Amino acid sequence: MRQYTLRQLDTFLEVARELSISRAAEKLHVTQPAVSMQLRQLENAIGTPLLEQVGRKMLLTAAGVDFRQYAFDALAQLTLLEAAMAERRELKKGRVELAIVSTAKYFVPMLLVRFRQQYPAIQVVLHIHNRESIMNSLVRNEIDLVIMGRAPDTIDTVAVAFATNPLGIVSAPGHPLSRRRNAPLSILNGQDFVVRESGSGTRQSMERLFLEKGISPNIVMEMPSNETIKQAVMADMGLSFLSLRTTRHELASGHLVLLDIAGLPVVRHWHVTHLKGKRLSPAAGALKDFLIEEAGPLIDEWA
Length: 303
What we know:
Layout: H1 6-18, H2 21-28, H3 32-46, E1 51-54, E2 57-60, H4 62-88, E3 94-101, H5 108-118, E4 122-129, H6 131-139, E5 145-148, E6 157-171, E7 192-196, H7 201-213, E8 218-223, H8 226-234, E9 240-243, H9 248-253, E10 257-258, E11 266-275, H10 282-302
Helix pairs in contact: 1-2, 1-3, 1-4, 2-3
């Protein structure tokens, strides 16, 4: 039976994630030659290349794609083994891979500060991506927990709501609609909108609402960043449909205005989500319980 070291597997998975030896070396806090040596030893043990250089890009070979999934699964099992032993020793320590959609970055750091006050020995590794990237990571079992809006329909998951997520229409202070009171939703028909990218949870919520009410906005630009969208709205490029958790400071300072429209804001929820068949480690279970039991009131105070 061929022997692979955990260090080799960790090194390969980091390179596979970054597709760059230099970036992987930075993440692992080692030199580039050390990373190259670990990869070479692993490929020699396996007997086939796992990575290839195509022009200036590094890509996984077909064998590398298969090996990545098996390596993830193997390390996940080892993590469960360590967690089970820690649980038997009644140690409140461990590591949690937590992924969040970008909109949640406005309040999650505050929650993690509070969580660490209760569990200082638990390390939480935070991944911030768009919804599509997180779904891919969830399917590959690369992460333990996800904080997101609507749970995915195409993946068998467990999702528990733990906080509200109000969404509304914001404008620049000088926009004509900013002075309307209790305006009908139909007033948005044909208005210029700056929106999140297709596939984002915020974009999907907007599209469902507008489709249901027969609203046809004029999409003038798509942007993958809430911060960029807020700047565009303040510059009077158009209106936007955003989570009000992301606009607290701009609304308070008067740089943005929440439109007074009947039926808005729409209140959705934040969920803590994981694969249905996943056995959570004690550390991941502690974080999940913290979110469900304590996060809602903290978010209401913070954002």
